[in-house]
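Fold this complex.
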Amino acid sequence: MAARTIKVDYLARIEGEAAFKVVVRDGVVRSAAFSVFEPPRFFEALLRGRAFGEAPDITSRICGICPIAYQMSAVHAIESALGVAVTGPLRELRRLIYCGEWIESHTLHVYLLHAPDFLGFDSGLAMARAHGETVKRGLALKKAGNDIVNLLGGREIHPINVRVGGFYRVPRRREFAPLAEALKRARDIALDTVRWTAKLDFPDLERDYEFVSLRHPDEYPFNEGRIVSSGGIDISPDEYAQHFEEIHVERSTALQSRIIARGAYLTGPLARYSLNFDRLPPAVRQAAQEAGLGATCNNPYRSIVVRAVEVLYACDEALRIIADYQEPDRPAVAVEPRAGIGCAATEAPRGMLWHRYRLEADGAIAEARIVPPTSQNQPSIEEDLRACVTKSLDLEDEALRLLCEQTIRNHDPCISCSTHFLRLEIDRGTDA
Amino acid sequence: MSGRPRCVVLGVGNCDRGDDAAGPAVARALHGQLPGGVAVIEGSGEATALIAHMDGAATAFLVDACVSGAPPGTVHRIDASAAPVPERLRGLTTHGFGVAAAVELARAIGQLPPHCIIYAIEGAGFETGAPLSPAAAAGAAEAAQRLCAEISQSE
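Structure:
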């Protein structure tokens, strides 16, 4: 029997610790497993009993790359439970800080984590040695995102200025002047980035994903909208648990999500773009089309172009918000504790992030549930691996291994985010 | 670039992870102790932010905790201007992509300050929520004193 096993015990250039194993027998892929061995982190359990106001600061610690996403999903879900709506300039500032996170996270991934795969380097550092000016451009673009998060979030990592109801402090109009100048330069770099990624060489693979993302009547989605899918799902975030389920698989400390009675689905840039192309401004749509993208994108390797398009959008959206900004009367709307249940989904850079909280009458968190994007994308990542290996069995093992790594990085998985929960069962026997 | 400090001191680490707080402790000890034109910054150690902070400076001092096997509190001084940071003194990082990566990435893209010195303080423990150990605190105090002297001499 002709047997091949492609195995990587420690996968680099992703956030966290994971491995994968693909088993081939007689020219047929028998299994493709993406295993997460990052230790479980129990965030949902440690939220229990805490005051609702602590949730944005606790959940932001789940991830150093996308803390804003955690804060946003937390505050929207809790506001839903408390019957609070945040509108006007405060709502706009929330979109602005999300722009900052998309710019930071996507740019890091495009330039230092994913581009080395396309250009044949084993690390971002090795690529920087050969393409110094390119990486320098990427770092300058990322800095514009850091600057937004610093100004609105109070610091660059694990920001501390987001609260239920709004912010602790909001900027004065004049504080945005240097940021606007930086963002204009960043916008030019972002457009260059779209054009640069378009020239990369993409493996030929089209996948029939069921895309899932938020969709808003007027906007490319960050914080609000209905959860829709290319397979016809169109629900409020409150209905998420009736349509999606999480499953524990033995090889992984992260749960895996599936559409109930249907299976794998994909969130993230490809899904957002394909379900919301018509919500992008004309200039961004044009840049996408000039980069060779259609109104949908089913080639996972082209996600690097889609990320670049989303960075361009985030720069434009940030500039729009800053230009229109009117200082609000108060940094946050008043919130009063009450018993209730609230759900929310927002769009983290790497995909949809769903939170659900049940609050006691005094505002203490009775239950918390968090479904991060990487849990949702894991089954699709495994299906991608299976499809890519099936198409590329003629490659030598080393080349196939590199292609598998690139395939996983297409979805920018964040392992530390996805390992916050482990179902624990203790068997003490009968005579304990 | 105009308006940029000519010298930056970057104390990096997580204040809630035991001896990882050594870098920020040094930065705090140096506030108000250095000549004008020297910027003292506390940071998380995220590499691209470190590169941005160093950009345009003539001299950068990076202060971080490390684990090399030396007695806790030992202060290592490494001139990173000319040669890569030795493997055994790569800073301890709880964030994956830290000081050594920042220095080497800055070097690769031609953005490393001409004079770049790393002060690495040997740590003993890095437990979540733990305070700085007495040994590492003494190391941080020694590093602050040596940095102060080194910067004063060069000004």
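The first helix of chain B runs from residue 22 to 30.
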